[in-house]
Specification:
Number of helices: 7
Helix content: 55-70%
Number of domains: 1
Shape: elongated
Order of helices and strands: HHEHHHHEEH
Structural class: mainly alpha
Pfam family, one: Connexin
Organism: Piaya cayana
GO molecular function, one term: gap junction channel activity
Number of strands: 3
Subcellular location: Cell junction, Gap junction; Cell membrane
Strand content: under 5%
Strand order of the largest sheet: 1-3-2
Keywords: Cell junction, Cell membrane, Gap junction, Membrane, Transmembrane, Transmembrane helix
Radius of gyration: 23 Å
CATH class: Mainly Alpha
């Protein structure tokens, strides 16, 4: 899979972001996307081939792997990156709509199409809420699917067609668990950044409205 589109999307959104938003983009680029491409993808590359059970029963090993890993960690992580970045498209589309509207009317309708005010501010706030919500959903999904944020060395399987309870061994469990903790930590960091930016923008907008009303009263 090529991640070029995701990189272009985040780069495009970066110029409409606040300082906190630019930190979020940097975290996604450096601590999530680059780590995924450079290291994590290779660790899970042969996870099915390296999953071993002490039984010769045909089909038992495949069934046990599917039972304990219904969705691959790395594919779920990739899906999380895509889904979490998708709300940024709302901001890009809104700016494109403003630019197209100015072009059709052949006049200046906005001080700047990319300035966060009015409708664009609402769109930006919605994108932050969606990104935070998706992060939480995927963290809960990881926790539910794998019974916690851990990768065991040994799992016991008694799913048919296994003749009895068999021992199955997961390859590189410590290394995988380190990257899983890293995934959780970066997700939590992104949630904190999104909520901080959301709070900052709401506070800034509320303060601006209050000062405007205060000035009107004095006049």
């Amino acid at each position: 899979m090529s991640w070029g589109f995701l990189c272009d999307l985040l780069s495009g959104v970066n110029k409409y972001s606040t300082g906190i938003g630019r930190i979020w983009v940097a975290v996604v680029f450096i601590f999530r996307l680059l780590v995924y491409i450079a290291a994590a993808e290779n660790i899970w590359k042969y996870e099915h081939d390296e999953f071993e059970c002490n039984v010769e029963q045909p089909g038992c090993e495949n069934v046990c792997f599917d039972y304990f890993f219904p969705v691959s960690h790395i594919r779920l992580w990739a899906l999380q990156l895509i889904v979490v970045s998708a709300p940024s498209l709302l901001v890009v589309f809104h700016v494109a709509y403003r630019e197209n509207r100015e072009k059709n009317h052949n006049q200046k309708l906005y001080r700047s199409p990319g300035e966060r005010d009015g409708g664009l501010l609402c769109t930006y706030l919605i994108s932050l809420i969606l990104k935070s919500g998706f992060e939480v959903v995927f963290l809960v999904l990881f926790y539910k699917l794998y019974n916690g944020f851990k990768v065991p060395r040994l799992v016991k399987c008694d799913v048919r067609p296994c003749p009895n309870t068999v021992d199955c061994y997961i390859s590189k469990p410590t290394e995988k668990m380190i990257f899983l903790y890293f995934l959780v930590a970066t997700s939590c960091l992104c949630i904190v950044l999104n909520l901080s930016e959301l709070t900052y923008l709401i506070f800034k907008y509320s303060l601006k409205r209050y000062l405007k009303r205060h000035n009107k009263k004095h006049r």
